[in-house]
């Protein structure tokens, strides 16, 4: 599997006033983290200077010192979200690279092995989705707000494209390594499906029936995908 070009934090450009000292940078980051918590809890409409100052436990003047207006503050908060999301993508890469050797050992031309591979892949995808819900609920909710903001703010749209391209590259190379003969198209389908399921999980909450339904959907999808994979083309 070819190494994926990692999008680095250095490529992210914050727009607010730059901090010259470590203590100032810490305060600036506290403000951005507080902004993300407010977005998750109250939505973008809840982002106000006074609310942020209270949430971050900083003077009100600090929010206007680092950010000229609310739009700049919101854009930089989503830049911070992108930083978090890219770190999550990096962990995602490591997890899926680790399961490739197990899949490579399965003979997908044999019905029994193919079904075992289907269940294995569906279980891994389900674990990924459920893991985000259990440990990264804030990330999931932030992602929904991020997508909406990308539709109305050009700068946030660029961040969204950066995040999507990084994830697309990883999924595409994973599917190529499995032998997909149309990795780009299959990647679009996988990403659309996962986004839909993650949104459904947010709506379902801790509903056990919802988790079972999602697992069935993933098994069904992998079964449909499996005939497109060509084991002889698999490259690790």
TrEMBL record:
Q: What molecular function terms (GO) are annotated for this protein?
A: DNA-binding transcription factor activity; transcription cis-regulatory region binding
Query: By what name is this protein known?
Result: TetR family transcriptional regulator
Q: Where is the HTH tetR-type domain?
A: 25-85
Keyword check for Transit peptide, yes or no.
Answer: no
Q: Does the keyword Metal-binding apply?
A: no
Q: Which PANTHER family does the protein's record reference?
A: HTH-TYPE TRANSCRIPTIONAL REGULATOR PKSA, HTH-TYPE TRANSCRIPTIONAL REGULATOR RUTR
Portion annotated as DNA-binding: 48-67
Q: Which Gene3D superfamilies match?
A: Tetracycline Repressor, domain 2 (1.10.357.10)
